[in-house]
Fold this protein.
Amino acid sequence: MPELRYRLPLFPLPVVLLPGAVMPLHIFEQRYRDMVADVLTGDRRFGLIYHDWDQDGPFLADTGEVGCVAEIRQSEELEDGRFLLVVEGLERFVIDEGLEQQSLYFESIVTPYEDHSAMQGAEMAFRRRESMRLFDQLVGLLPERPDRLPEFSDGAEVSFLIAQTIQMELPWHQRLLELRDEGSRLERIDQVLRAVIRRGSS
């Protein structure tokens, strides 16, 4: 079955949006105001892709770059044309090919970026429970329980849910986004959780 390819507006930013995460955005640059106005009349979705303009220079929408589809959950247009948004991360995508721009903002042809996990069934369920146990252990060491914690459900991916709560450098989160195996993501997350638990217990 051929992969689904589709056209997606892109918003390059020095942030990483993970599937399931909720993020506020302040849209002030004109081309992205145009993008938001356009997507609000359609499916309310655009691609948020990690790009540090100061470090990496101009955004070129290179083939193979991985981002996350952002769906606008709340929007407020200010009097001067700026937008305040709340977006939620949906599925991941990979840039398949760039386009000649018909608008001021970036667009590309993308395809879904799906997992190819070797671990399945009971083995994966056990692996996820171990990560959730470590996460609960870490939360128990905090002086105050945070108001918003991820809610885990049976059979659901938990790596991105836990990763939302971990304060790491952005390239770490981007690498996690690019991994196509839930077990590998959980292994990287567990390393961080164990290190923080050790420091908190000492």
Summary: The chain has a mean pLDDT of 89.
